[in-house]
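CO-FOLDING WORKSHEET

Operator: S.A.
Ligand of interest: zinc ion
Run index: 63
Mode: holo prediction, single chain
Checklist:
[x] sequence pasted
[x] SMILES validated
[ ] output reviewed
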Amino acid sequence: MKNEMIKYKCPRCHEKKIIDYGKIIECVKCQLEFYKRDIETLNRSNILAISELNDFIRILIES
Ligand SMILES: [Zn+2]
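OUTPUT RECEIVED:
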């Protein structure tokens, strides 16, 4: 019985089936990856998927 499968859920679609990569979880439904740290510390509406974070950083660098 793996507790972490229940502890973390997708902050975007609230799916409870997630793949645990250690520091990162991936939602099987929307296939977005999130940092566990963000889920634990940030408001759900402020959490960005890792792919979205990368886009955000790219925009900052290029501007
Ligand atoms: Zn999801």
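REVIEW:
Residues 10, 12-13, 15, 27, 29-30, 32 surround zinc ion (CB under 6 Å).
Residues 50-62 form the longest helix (13 residues).
[x] output reviewed
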